[in-house]
Amino acid sequence: MAKSAAASIKEKAKKIKLLIFDVDGVLTDGRIILDNEGNELKSFDVRDGHGIRMFIKAGFHVALITGRHSKVVERRARELGIEDVFQKCYKKVAAYEQVVGKFGVSDEEVAYLGDDVVDIPLFRRVGLAVAVADACAEAKKAAVHITKASGGRGAARELCELILKANGKWKELLDEYNTL
Description:
Elements: H1 3-14, E1 18-21, E2 33-34, E3 40-41, H2 46-57, E4 61-65, H3 71-80, E5 84-86, H4 92-103, E6 110-114, H5 120-123, E7 128-131, H6 137-142, E8 145-146, H7 155-166, H8 170-178
Parallel strand pairs: 1-4, 1-6, 4-5, 6-7, 7-8
Antiparallel strand pairs: 2-3
């Protein structure tokens, strides 16, 4: 990434107060496993989860907006301390407007991590639009930043760290682990 592009991303990241994630293909690798009993299984990266918990601990807000509905997503959100979960959102803008209104933030104070064409309307709204490394070409083109990591494989952690570092919170969080 060019130095000026990196500086621009850092400036955008400094303004973030709310981070919104898509789920399938972002917090998971996009695979959906269905068993013979009708149960849906998803795989989540533990470091992504820890990054989200650190992000919340630092005083930021987190929400999930996803097109599918899954009890697994509800459970994972509870484990991570994410209260604002919008499922079965085919047009994500309505959920976006609701959560932005709840937290009283402007579009430029929101980051969104997505992976597919359904995420493009939110990419056009937010201050920091980020696509995972294995996102579709159209999503990557609409994003202002692309993670090095793939969805479900560290992309969420990477974005949390980027924002925490830009806001001077990362070292403070790490210091807590160094004093244990």
